[in-house]
Description:
31% helix, two-stranded antiparallel ribbon
Amino acid sequence: xxxxxxxxxxxxxxxxxxxxxxxxxxxxxxxxxxxxxxxxxxxxxxxxxxxxxxxxxxxxxxxxxxxxxxxxxxxxxxxxxxxxxxxxxxxxxxxxxxxxxxxxxxxxxxxxxxxxxxxxxxxxxxxxxxxxxxxxxxxxxxxxxxxxxxxxxxxxxxxxxxxxxxxxxxxxxxxxxxxxxxxxxxxxxxxxxxxxxxxxxxxxxxxxxxxxxxxxxxxxxxxxxxxxxxxxxxxxxxxxxxxxxxxxxxxxxxxxxxxxxxxxxxxxxxxxxxxxxxxxxxxxxxxxxxxxxxxxxxxxxxxxxxxxxxxxxxxxxxxxxxxxxxxxxxxxxxxxxxxxxxxxxxxxxxxxxxxxxxxxxxxxxxxxxxxxxxxxxxxxxxxxxxxxxxxxxxxxxxxxxxxxxxxxxxxxxxxxxxxxxxxxxxxxxxxxxxxxxxxxxxxxxxxxxxxxxxxxxxxxxxxxxxxxxxxxxxxxxxxxxxxxxxxxxxxxxxxxxxxxxxxxxxxxxxxxxxxxxxxxxxxxxxxxxxxxxxxxxxxxxxxxxxxxxxxxxxxxxxxxxxxxxxxxxxxxxxxxxxxxxxxxxxxxxxxxxxxxxxxxxxxxxxxxxxxxxxxxxxxxxxxxxxxxxxxxxxxxxxxxxxxxxxxxxxxxxxxxxxxxxxxxxxxxxxxxxxxxxxxxx
Length: 681
């Protein structure tokens, strides 16, 4: 087989694409989707095409030489297979592509572009700032999520690539949806007269990238970890997506970029793209029969988003999983209708926010000490949420099962080594779905997980999940309400510049700083509390190691965070043990689900019962006693449910009415020990 010609390493002014159609590649035996009729078909059986010599196969270490006629998306069909007069027959630059599309893809077009820059807010302060543009080309009656171009190298300076110029870069990245196989195909113009085909969506979730670079085999799979489009700020106010100069940049290149689009519409486009791909994705993963792979985005982030809050509120999606609140219009309307909003934000003092960011040395890459929208943080991605919706639509999981999983270590909604690590349990990793699809139900999956984790030691995340799965109808709302009330009730303070500020607010800012360390994967940051081990085939020492193991990303977790300006930096350091220093945060730190104090390691919580558990009907059942005294109370451990327990409860309630009339919490558990001599452990 003829070796593939490799392009020269490119220096990309303004940085590589952050949001949408990054290049992707894939490896493995199945080079192309079998539904398209080209899976494992040798070159000798593929019709040759004149453009094969310039459309290079980066989907595998052993590339095919006949690529064009293996592909069936609008990009390949309009750019390479279609014929046009007086244009390059095999266009390899953005400008040549635009010229050919004017003839081959020109019916009823609606072309919109969206600009992004982590530095765009500095446009009035200096030259050389980088911009990237995503262009949606909707023509010939196709959906606006079918073909998307990403161009970069624009800057706030003089010359053709400046905002005020009219030039286009030679290299451009493209993602195009193939209706026949239900996947996105990924391409990149390489700047040397060739275009690379970097595989499709299924390749990314199956194999992941082979290297860290844009032009590595499966390279853009480092960012497109879920196989679909990326819009990292899938929530208003889109802090980096309305840069100064963006409208001028697009209008000066209207032939290629159309007009500047609204970001609310862009959210809709990305959502439709995910929904199309998710139908194929769920079917593809389901056919493998592996439970852990099917549920991976429920347990652990495959992608993440950036959200901004305010100086006066800590948003709910920072405190716990965004799936629990569903306040955002784009994500899981079905989930919202079934469950309502379980979570809410917590009000804080805006003046204290300013004092804290000054004290921790926060810097927004030349913008002062904050971005134009304050309190940027990392949250669960809309992509993962929409995948979970499709699991629900397919009847594989239900809302209760999803909630039971998300509530494990729920105060670490994104970076939970405890919840993510359950997928690394050998018994869980080996679980297989029933052979017949009609038997692949939420109850079947629930039973498989319980069986696999039945021997989990008490106090572990695995044991917590089993307790939720076995206690059907667990009252997760009560657990969240208890946590929020504890946070709102904190009265401890930290003195900054002779002013007392909320200890809760200081802890939140420390945790937000820790997020930045996590997403940029600093080498000196041994983050969460893993013990070294080889249970994933690699040494697990940090959350980054875990993320790599679970998402097939071999080099850098969360590579979508390419630019330091995406999140503010500060002087807070990661340390290995407990600390009260304002400029230190313990690795693996999070807010305790019980008292909202900063803690480390997994913290189990008692299972709050909604009274729907059949075991509660037995009058000598611990769950029954606790549920009867308080419908929203926290049941004690089952080890306290036998013998003299009922009489003990009466003694406890006689001693302190709170335990029967208000809540049955850890205070009441201690009284069981003190008054009755029964230890609940």
